[in-house]
Amino acid sequence: SSQEPKLNFKKSKEVCLSYIQDAMLQKQWKRAAEFLSFYVESLEKDFSKEYVNPSEIIWRVGTEILCHCSNGSMREFNSFIEQMKTFGVKRYLKVCLEHAFHLLCNGQIDDAYQNLSLAESWRYGEQTAIQDKEMKLIQAYRGLLDYYSWSKQKNILLDHGLDEFENLSVEQEMHSYFRKAAVNLKEIIKIPGVWDLFVKCYVDLLEFYGDHNEAHQVLTEYAYNSKFPANPNAHVYLYQFLKRHGESKKSLISVLKILHDLVPSHELMIDFNTMLQKSKKRKRCRLGLEVIFAVLDYAGWKENVKAWSCLARQVKQIAIAEKHVDWIKQEWNSRKDWWPAFHFTHYLAKQNWKESESLSYEKALVAGILLGKDCKYFKYVSHQGCKAQVKRFRILKKFVNKHNPVYLRIS
């Protein structure tokens, strides 16, 4: 029938693509390249009237194959990419951007910059307006390379003893790079999105030239603008900036509170807990206990001495004062069914004792208060500590026995 050639072509094309995919998954790059050449040839022989737009497939598959072929050279890659740029104008800027990334990965920074500059001057009728976002990305990455050049000049200025004339020359070149980088970086971070690297570079430029107010405003906007996606790093950058410039603890706590809500297991939660514990406000101390319990819910913190030390210190203070035991009880109620198996088994006691005496001590103190003096973890560690005649373990054993009523109130 008249439909048969079209159906056969469509089927053979799909089979060829599946062979390419299979070869790539098995890292058989030569085989994948052979199938890709068959695929391109079959398209050239296709005389059907059906519209076929395979340019993106050929671009993406071809790029992947060339990147992994052991005998593939930059010359071959550049030649292929240049052909892809003219293969489909709708993807021209995306191909240019990928080409720049590949050049950067191979250390060809000047070529990457030139590639981005040429892409920035590209115009093609209505496509220019349609690809406005891609154009902004091209400009932003060019700004990033301008920042890189600025940073190199800055290091020359700071690390080398230059005479007055050389200093002036370097400073002028630096300022030229600063202007070009700042313009493009400032533009991209206005668009809602995740622009971590661009924001960091722009803030570095502003801080170097003493424009702290602008830097603060940029970071605040990046962290709190509701149009931007929730991004933990935005709050990390703001916190680090505020800390560098000696802002109040109230400001630092405010930023870390949001970070805690987004990522309760973040490494800055130790700093957050320490700040909260030092506070005289009851509400902050309560939050500190919540923060450190939440940190230790995650496997990555299981053997972290600092985290257990923070919890042990606060639990010990509460036990001695015999106040706010209900805080511990509230946190423990949601964890008592799984924390014993997660943190306080006999096996873990043996492993922890073998690897770290300090970790064993902090965990044993917490285990003794939360699970009582008959807890397997506490009994094993305190026995080993006393057997080794380590004084602080004898004191630990007495402390837990003395404050066993706290365990009874919690349980």
UniProtKB/TrEMBL annotation:
InterPro entries per the UniProt record, alphabetical: SL1/TIF-IB_Component, TAF1A
GO biological process terms on file: transcription by RNA polymerase I
A Gene Ontology term for the protein's cellular component: RNA polymerase I transcription regulator complex
Domain of life where this protein originates: Eukaryota
Pfam families: TAF1_subA (PF14929)
The protein, known as: TATA box-binding protein-associated factor RNA polymerase I subunit A
Protein source organism: Calypte anna
Taxonomic lineage from the root: Eukaryota, Metazoa, Chordata, Craniata, Vertebrata
